[in-house]
Amino acid sequence: MIKTLSKAIRQYKSAAILSPIFVTLEVICECAIPFIITLLGNTFIEGKAAYGSLNNVLLWGGILIAVSLASLAFGALSGFFCANASSGFARNMREDIYYKIQEFSFENIDKFSTPSLVTRMTTDVNNVQQAFMMIIRVAVRAPMMMIFSLVMAFVMGGSLAWIFVGVIPPLSLILFFIMKKAMPLFHRVFRKYDNLNESIQENVKGIRVVKSYVREDYEKEKFDRAAEDVRKDFTRAERILAWNHPVMQLFFYGVLSSVLFVGSVFIFNSESSISYIQVSQLVVYGMQILSSLMMFSFVFAMIVMSVESARRICEIFNEESSLHNPENPVYEVADGSVDFDNVSFKYSAAAERNVLEGVNLHIRSGETIGIIGGTGSSKTSLVNLISRLYDTTEGTIRVGGLNVKDYDLESLRNQVAVVLQKNVLFSGTIKENLRWGNKDATDEELIEACRLAQADEFVQSFPQGYDTYIEQGGSNVSGGQKQRLCIARALLKKPKILILDDSTSAVDTQTDALIRKSLKEYIPATTKIIIAQRISSVEDADRIIVMEGGRIDAVGTHAELLKSNAIYAEVFQSQTKGGKNDAS
Fold it and tell me: In what order do the strands lie in the sheet with 551-556?
């Protein structure tokens, strides 16, 4: 896990090294200051010629000021490099997660919910960043401070310093016990964070539906339950961690009281060589030792919280895409022919049944194919296999005469344009959205594609035309407008295969007919596969596929299916005057 995460340090490696170096120098200066103060104090008290001269007072005073300024400078430099390293580490980690997600296949993405991915890139990365910052600064400062302070305590107080050594083992055991108890709770709480974010995302995304059904109260209750689950586990974890501070305080004041008591006895003992200045500075070293232990406790607390976050981030990094390019990929797609040879498919190896079963289908290049079927008949699953968004469980799919697994993924998908069932527009201008289809498209090509998709008229009606800004998710355009822009975007790719997955459902039948006419005239050599619920959207196709229960029930023209297929005939009758007229 550490090896995986450390790759994100990269260009900030020097800052991550310099921070603990300057921390060490800062600690050395801090530990030297009480010793210098003792020497300076002895100069005044003992009045010896060797120490009592003004020159010695000025010397030790100057050294004290210089060491104090050096400590300040080293601390500032350490803080600067620590902030730079930790912020850069978090930036690189988010970038790596984001880039890794882009490599995922649909199968990989299905394993992680969107809210979970968002939580990992925000809350989890923040936790790991805080832990990293403490590791390169506080986790270095604490042991260094403890070691140097212990050495100086023995120098200043001799056997009296053993009091500090005796307190370290019991405190370490207590800290370990607290960490062991709290870690499982943090393991649970971050999973519940995913549920909380899922509730928020779902509500915001579907806010129009929530308001139209007046379900605000229900959504509030659902959110409250998720928030309460997070609160309960966090409270349990924090309750355990809360023992950390009072235990530290108990040991802190207990040790200081012991040092003051034993030191006082030594001072009043005429045979003792310890002065009250030494005892007072020994108390300072004792405070530094105990403070370093307290720092350790804070580091442990942060590490406990971040371990689960780190594990969740590593899950992303360790996830390997289920789709890979072959060793010697093919970069050119010959034509738009598509062949399904005894294809079966299921989304998960653990699934009990296939969603597609024994599909055999042969589509000639340039054909227009319609696909009709009820909800759950696996129409979308069928076309998702063509551009290799998923791999088949059994059987082979060929595009342009070659197995889709032989192609370079990017090359294959550039020749298979898909207008998905759920149309997506991104925040940006209409031009920027259209150029997803072809980043080098001219303004004239954009207008031509929109004209063919019956989108140019409404785009030109906007005050800023093609420079109109589209809000996130296309919330400022209608469903039909969104569909037509997505079709225009696909046309700009000039693909060998065009798949329209129920992508004209939000437009009227006349506009639907005009779009199909444009497709036939503009890209006659392109294979067009149209999934639709309306018979009118596919009735003029070269062939129509009827799907039922993950299988192909029938294939034929509109006229042939009306005569030979009961499912198709029933759908046609239900869509033409409720079946009152004779379908034939």
Answer: 416-419, 497-501, 527-531, 368-373, 543-548, 551-556
Which pair of tokens denotes residue 355? 């969603």
Q: Which residues contact 236 (CB under 8 A, 6 or more apart)?
A: 185
Kindly state the DSSP code that residue 468 receives in the 8-state scheme.
P
Name the strand (E) or helix (H) holding 345: strand 338-345
Distance CA 272, CA 276 (A): 11
Tokens of 131: 């832990």
Spatial distance between the Cα atoms of 346 and 355, rounded to a whole number of angstroms: 5
Helix intervals (H) in 366-478: 379-384, 409-414, 430-434, 443-452, 456-461
Please state, in angstroms and as integers, the Cα–Cα distance from residue 100 to each residue in 63, 109, 117, 456, following that order: 54, 11, 11, 37
CA end-to-end distance (rounded Å), the chain: 68
Predicted confidence (pLDDT) per residue in 171-188, tens digit:
778 777 776 777 677 667
Q: Which of 236, 109, 127 is nearest to 182 (CA)?
A: 236
The mean predicted confidence, pLDDT, of the chain is 83
* Segment 381-415, tens digit of pLDDT: 999 899 998 899 999 999 999 999 999 999 999 99
Predicted TM-score (pTM) of the model is 0.69
Helix axes 276-318, 54-103, angle to 10 degrees: 10
